[in-house]
Design brief:
single chain, 95 residues, alpha+beta, GMP Synthetase, Chain A, domain 3, 46% helix, 22% strand, elongated
C-alpha cells in the first residue's frame, strides 16, 4: 500500500478498519457464491504498526462438495484484493 500520511489511529478506528475489510471480503465472496454452497468461510483481518500500518487479510474458504471444478483460490485472491481496497478507502477518509 502506498504512503497515505495518516495520523495515528485509535483502537476504535483500527477495529472499524478491520471490520470494514472483513465485510468487504465476505460480501465479495457471497456475491459470487451462494452461502448454501460454502462449507466453511473464515476471514481474519489484522492491522499492525502505525507507520507503516500493515493490514493482513487471511481467508479460509472451503466450497461445498457439490461445486466440482470450482477454483476457490482465485475467489480468495480477488476477495483479499477487495478487502485491501476497502481498507485503503477507509484510511483515506481518516486524513
Amino acid at each position: 500500500m502506498e504512503e497515505l500520511g495518516l495520523p495515528d489511529l485509535t483502537t476504535k478506528q483500527i477495529e472499524t478498519l478491520c471490520s470494514t475489510a472483513e465485510d468487504a471480503a465476505r460480501s465479495y465472496i457471497l456475491s459470487k457464491v451462494p452461502l448454501k454452497m460454502v462449507e466453511k468461510l473464515n476471514i481474519s483481518v489484522e492491522a499492525e504498526g502505525t507507520r507503516p500500518l500493515s493490514v493482513t487479510v487471511e481467508i479460509d474458504l472451503v466450497p461445498s462438495s457439490k461445486m466440482k471444478d470450482f477454483n476457490a483460490n482465485i475467489l480468495v485472491t480477488e476477495a483479499v484484493k477487495e478487502a485491501l481496497v476497502a481498507s485503503e478507502s477507509y484510511l483515506r477518509k481518516q486524513k
